[in-house]
Amino acid sequence: MLDDATLTGIADELAEAARTRVPVPLLSVRYPGMSVEDAYRVQKLWRQRGEAAGRVVAGHKIGLTSRAMQQATGISEPDYGIIFEDAILETGRTLPWQQFTHPRVEVELAFLLKEDLVGPGITLIDVLRATDYVTPALEILDSRVEMEWRTIVDTISDNAALGAVVVGGNPVKPDAIDLPWVSAILLRNEVVEETGVAAGVLGHPGRGVAWLANKLAVHGESLRAGELILAGSFTRPLWVAAGDTIHADFGMLGRVTCRFESAPILH
User: Fold this and answer.
1) Which region holds residue 232: left if phi is over 0, alpha if psi is between -120 and 50, else beta?
2) From CA 43, how far away is CA 40, in angstroms rounded?
3) What are the tens digits of pLDDT across the range 141-151?
């Protein structure tokens, strides 16, 4: 395991990368002995800095739960990150493209919890019982670490590459629809780029939430009522450029849209 001073230095680098939009070199190459636990400690430092600045944790994201995402990244195990309240956006938003580094978009379902989920031993049934509603979402991926040849420790340290979450469509109770069969069509500038079915996330998107609750228990944490949980993408990540309009059609669950514009960042 890396010492505290090294982990703090890594967190400093990532904070600077977020400010300048210049990714840092691969952590896995520079620190070949870096472990998954080290990476989550870096992520925790990043979270603590955000909270000290007044940001509020409003949920969590799960990454790399589907074969589509694992094949796209070359990483075969899931990871997770936290979502601050100010990163959750309503559908229809226009976002400055320069706000992100190498932005990509994924199609997901988000679970809004009405009860705590405290692992270990959380099952799919527990997740469905604890869920108030499920809603369509787009995750905007950001990158504070170089993209090529990233490993699991790079993605975890980078808060699982979370940039923002766009929610919309028609929220439904978890027992009102057969969740594994929820499908989505992802369009960029009115061109179909990706399609997927929610069963791509561990056979049922709720299993991703159960995995997260049990994983958090290892670190002495849990999922809380009122939190929004991104269950994992069931399409490959779609690269976006300035000026792109993104449209995700979830059929009976409605649509989620956002647009990336080229505009200066206000400091």
Assistant:
1) left
2) 5
3) 999 999 888 88
In contact, 256 and 136? CB cutoff 8 Å: yes
Mean pLDDT, rounded, for 63-87: 78
Contact 160, 81 (CB under 8 A): yes
Q: Cα 264–241–231 angle (5° rounding)?
A: 105
pLDDT digits (tens, 9 = 90+) for 184-210: 999 999 999 999 999 999 999 999 999
Rounded to whole angstroms, how far apart are CA atoms 1 and 111? 34
Tokens of 264: 């200066």
Residues 6+ apart with CB under 8 A from 88: 58, 59, 164, 165, 167, 228
Neighbouring-strand partners of residue 117: 223
Place of tokens 């990871």: 79
Q: What is the pLDDT of residues 131-190, one digit of tens each?
A: 999 999 999 999 999 988 888 899 999 999 999 999 999 999 999 999 999 999 999 999
